[in-house]
């Protein structure tokens, strides 16, 4: 039975909230990591200076004490504000159960069409034949990841553009390949309708770091890792074909 409009709206709102939650978690993780490295260096150099500075120089000793105190305060803030905030999402909970791969495709694509693709006149095309494959994983999380991949493709497509979802399976893994012609300027074009948060869309226009995806796609990365799979984002280059690829292991035969 097709979902009612209210049910669909609630599900799309939940998908947006999950996307924002895991992007926040990713940003906090980066903040924690990127701040700890220089703090550790400052702390180490303070000990080097301590051995070089005259112990009877009260001013220098007070300066060193201030440096150490400042470092300790910053570390405490990271532990109290960043690390504790990430407790609930540090480990992605996966409720594994075997399910048919083919059954989830329409669910994800229909929600993207209703949420944004129709409003942007972006055509979603599914290219796959029935795989008959069974995935041993968290169906809801995988649907979320697939929805976000398609949503990102729509957000970064020009009006009247198109995106293609290619689904395939081998004996060992399932592959979801979303391809479209990149229009990065569309991400921040306020004349167009949007669903993802402005901050997320703006960050997604920045050059990709090696081996990393845009922050807004953190949920896809986490879902792939939790299932022992792989997620990859290709760069957004104006007018060129780009792709998001999610690979997941299949249930043993």
TrEMBL record:
It is an enzyme of class 2 (transferase). Residues 30-252 form the Histidine kinase domain. It catalyses: ATP + protein L-histidine = ADP + protein N-phospho-L-histidine. The lineage of its organism: Bacteria, Pseudomonadati, Pseudomonadota, Betaproteobacteria, Burkholderiales. Its EC number is 2.7.13.3. Keywords: Kinase, Phosphoprotein, Transferase. It comes from Paraburkholderia dinghuensis. This is histidine kinase. One of its GO terms (molecular function) is phosphorelay sensor kinase activity.
């Amino acid at each position: 039975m097709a979902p009612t409009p209210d049910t669909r709206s609630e599900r799309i709102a939940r998908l947006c909230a999950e996307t924002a939650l895991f992007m926040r978690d990713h940003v906090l993780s980066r903040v924690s990591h990127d701040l700890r490295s220089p703090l550790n260096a400052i702390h180490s150099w303070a000990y080097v200076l301590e051995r070089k500075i005259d112990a009877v120089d009260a001013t220098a000793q007070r300066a060193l004490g201030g440096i150490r105190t400042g470092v300790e305060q910053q570390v405490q803030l990271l532990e109290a504000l960043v690390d504790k905030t990430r407790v609930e999402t540090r480990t992605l909970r996966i409720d594994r159960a075997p399910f048919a791969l083919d059954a989830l495709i329409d669910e994800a694509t229909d929600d993207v069409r209703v949420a944004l693709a129709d409003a942007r006149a972006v055509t979603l095309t599914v290219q796959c034949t029935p795989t008959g494959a069974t995935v041993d994983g968290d169906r809801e999380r995988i649907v979320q990841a697939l929805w976000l991949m398609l949503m990102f493709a729509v957000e970064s497509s020009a009006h009247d553009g198109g995106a293609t979802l290619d689904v395939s399976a081998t004996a060992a893994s399932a592959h979801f390949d979303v391809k479209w012609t990149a229009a990065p300027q569309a991400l921040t074009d306020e004349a167009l309708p949007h669903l993802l948060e402005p901050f997320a869309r703006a960050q997604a226009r920045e050059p990709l770091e090696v081996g990393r995806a845009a922050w807004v796609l953190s949920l896809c990365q986490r879902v792939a890792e939790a299932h022992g799979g792989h997620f990859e984002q290709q760069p957004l280059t104006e007018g060129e074909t780009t792709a998001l690829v999610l690979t997941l292991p299949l249930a043993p035969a």
